[in-house]
Amino acid sequence: MIKALAVLTSGGDAPGMNAAVRAVVRRALDRAIRVYGVFNGYNGLVKGGDSMRPLKWEDVGGVLPKGGTFLGTARSDRFRTREGRREAVQHLLECGIEAMVVIGGDGSLMGAHVLASEWAEHVEELQKARPEGSGPAEGQPSETLQIIGLPGSIDNDLFGTDMSIGADTALNHIVSALDNLSSTAASHERTFIVETMGRHCGYLALMATLAGGASWVLVPEEQLELRWHQKMIESIDKARQVGRPHQMIIVAEGARHADGLPIRSEEIRKLLSERLGVDARLTVLGHIQRGGSPTAFDRVMATRLGVAAVDALVDNPEVRHTHMLGLVRNEVVATPLTEVVEKSQAVRTEIESGNYDRALELRGDSFRKTLSLVKTLTRISPAQKQHEDGAVAIVTGDADAPGMNAAVSVAARCLLNHGVKVYGALDGFLGLIRGNFVELNWHELVGWINRPSSEIGTARHEFEDGDLARIAENIERYKLKGIIAIGGWGFFTKLQEMVRRREEFEALRIPMVLAPATIDNNLPCTQFSIGSDTALNNIIEAVDKIRHTAGATRRAFIVEVMGGKCGFLAMMGALASGAEKAYIPENRISLAELNQDLEDLRCSFQKGKRMVIYLRNEHSSQHFTTNFIRDLLEEESMGQFQVRTAILGHVQRGGAPSAFDRVLAARMGSSAAFALLEAMDGTPQEDVSVFGLRGGSVTSVALSEAFTEMDFKTRRPKQQWFMELTDIANSLAKYGPSCVVADVQAPDGE
Length: 750
Description:
Elements: E1 4-9, H1 17-30, E2 34-38, H2 41-47, E3 52-54, H3 82-94, E4 99-104, H4 106-128, E5 146-151, H5 167-188, E6 191-196, H6 203-212, E7 216-218, H7 228-241, E8 247-252, H8 265-276, E9 280-284, H9 296-315, E10 322-328, E11 331-336, H10 337-352, H11 356-363, H12 365-377, E12 391-397, H13 404-416, E13 421-425, H14 429-434, E14 437-439, H15 442-445, H16 467-477, E15 480-487, H17 489-500, E16 512-516, H18 532-547, E17 555-561, H19 568-577, E18 581-583, H20 591-606, E19 611-617, H21 626-636, E20 642-647, H22 659-681, E21 689-694, E22 697-702, H23 703-708, E23 710-711, E24 716-717, H24 726-732
Parallel strand pairs: 1-2, 1-4, 4-5, 5-10, 6-8, 6-9, 7-8, 12-13, 12-15, 15-16, 16-21, 17-19, 17-20, 18-19
Antiparallel strand pairs: 2-3, 10-11, 13-14, 21-22, 23-24
C-alpha cells in the first residue's frame, strides 16, 4: 500500500495543471495517502528541502480558475545527469515517497521514466554510501518507484490521448484573438498573418483555422509545393476581387518550406505587401496562448485524469506503474511511458526527415480529415458549378444554441462545393411550412463561423393540421432533394412525424439528416451536443466571478442553471468550478439531504471558508425550488452565514461559441452534408440519420434507434456518461478528507 506520493509539474506550463494537482492531492488525502508537492519541477526534486512540501486539503482550494501551475515549473540541467537523479532519489526516500504523478510533455514524461528505471540502482548506491555506524535506514525502501504521467501540453502533441491538458484553453485563446482581429481586418481591409505555437504539431493552427474562419493555414505536417507562396498570393488576390478584402493566414511556428527550411511569418507579410500592395500585418500570439483561466473542458479532463492517477496507484498495487493516463474516446486509458514518448517523438522525426505523408499518418485519421475539410472551406469559390436540378434545405431550432451557425456554414459550403443549391429555412420548421427560404451564398457563409445563435432563425412550433401538406408542397416547389436539421428534441419528434406520414405525402420521401444542437446536452447518440460546451464555459465564468465576491462575510450562493431535466450543466459545472454541490434531476432532493447540506455549510465556514456555492438545475425539484433552498438555509444559519441566489438564465446560451463547439459543429455539419450527398445519389432513405460524437468520432444511427436510447418522460438519454463523474465531483468539493491521513513528517523525523 502506497503511503506517500509526490506530484510535480514540468516543462511548459499549461492551463488545467492546477486542476490536475488539486485532483491528485484531494483524492490521495481522501484515501489516506500523504502528498508532497514538488515545487519548480525537476529542479525542486533535485534540490529537496523546502522545494518538497506536504500539501493539505485546503492548500489546493481555489486553484481551479487559475492558469499555469501554482507548483511552478522549470527545466533542470542537473536532473539530466545521473548524479542529479541520484539526489532526487535521495530526497524522495527521505520523505518516504513511493510514487510520483508527473504532469507535463514528452520530455517530462521521459525524465520520469528514466528516474523509475534507475531507481533500484540509486537506492542501492545510497544505502552503501551511508556513514559507517549510522545504523540502518528508517523503513525499507520500495523496490520500485511508481510513476503515473498526465499529458500537459498546449500543443496537443502527445500520443496516447485525444487531448492534452491545456490544448483546449490555448485553442480558445487563439480563436478569440482571431475573432478580435477579424473586426479590425474588416474595418481596414487588412490581411493578418497570425503565428501560433506548435513547433512540431499543427493542431492549434489547423483547428484555429477551422474554428476561426481563416483563409489559409501552414502546418508542420503538410508537405508544401515549391511555389506554394505563389498559390497563396493568387488566392488572396482572387478573394479581394470577389469582395473579400480582409484575409486571415494562420502559420504554425514549426511550418516548413518544401526544402525543409522554416517559414518565417515576417517573410509572408513582406511578400504580400510587395506583391499585392495589401496592408498586411503580423500578429505573433506567443505565450498569450498558454495563459489565463482554463476552460471547462481542461478543468474536467485534468480532474478526471488526476483522480484516475491516484486510483490506479491505490487499486492496482501489484502493477509496476510507468504509464501515462490520457483521454481516448472520452475514456481514461493507460499507455506505457516508453510508447508515449517514442510515438510522440516519431512525428517530429518524420517531419525533420521530410516524410510528411508518414507524419500525417502518425497524427491520425481525425487530423487528416480535418486538414482535408479545411482545404475545402478555405476555397475562394466552390469546386463545381451549381446544378439546376435540385436543392437542399437547412433548418435550425427549436431553441438557439451557440455553434449552429458554424454547422450551417460548413454543411452548406460542403454541399455548394459539390454543385448543390442550398436554402436556409427561416425560423425553423415555420420556414419549411411557409416556404420562407433564403438562398445561402458561399461568400456570405464564410463569416458565419463565429456568430452566436442562428442567422436563419429558430422558433418553437408544434405541427398543426395541414402543416405537413404545406411542407410537402414546398419540397416540390423548391425542388428539395434533402433536408439537414440542426436542433434539439423537438426536431427528433418532428422528423419522426415526417417519416411516419410518407405514405400520405410522397414528397417527404427525401433524405433527411439530423445534427443534435442544444445547450442542455440531453439528446441521444452523442456525448456532446452543439452548444453545450459554450453554455458550460459561460456557467463556470459566472461562478468564478461569484467566488471573487468572497470577503469578510461568510456567504453561500445557490446558482440556478438551465438543462431541462438533464443534470449535465449543473453537474459538470460543479466539477469544473469546484462548486460544493450540484442538485440535478437524476437524483431526487430530500429534506434529509438538505439537512446534511446545512451541516456541511456550517462545517465549511467553521473551517475557514468564506464562500460556498451550490449549483441547482432549474428542474431538479418541483417543490424544493432555488428560493426555497435559499430561505431554508438562511433561516437555519442562525446568523452564521448569509445565503444568496443567482439565476443565470439566458446568459448561458449567449456569446460567441467556444472553439470546442465550433469544431464539433464543423465536424457534424460536414458529416451531415456528405451523408446527404451520398443518399441523394443512391436509393431513397427510409429513416433519418442522426449524427453524434461518440467515442471521439462523429457517427450516425437511424432515428428509430436513437429513440430507443431515450427516456421520453424526462427527455434525456437512459444512460448518461457524465453521471459516472458524480462521485468525483462530490468527493473533491468536500471541506475535508473522509479519513485522517498519517502524520506528514518524514520517516526519519526530520
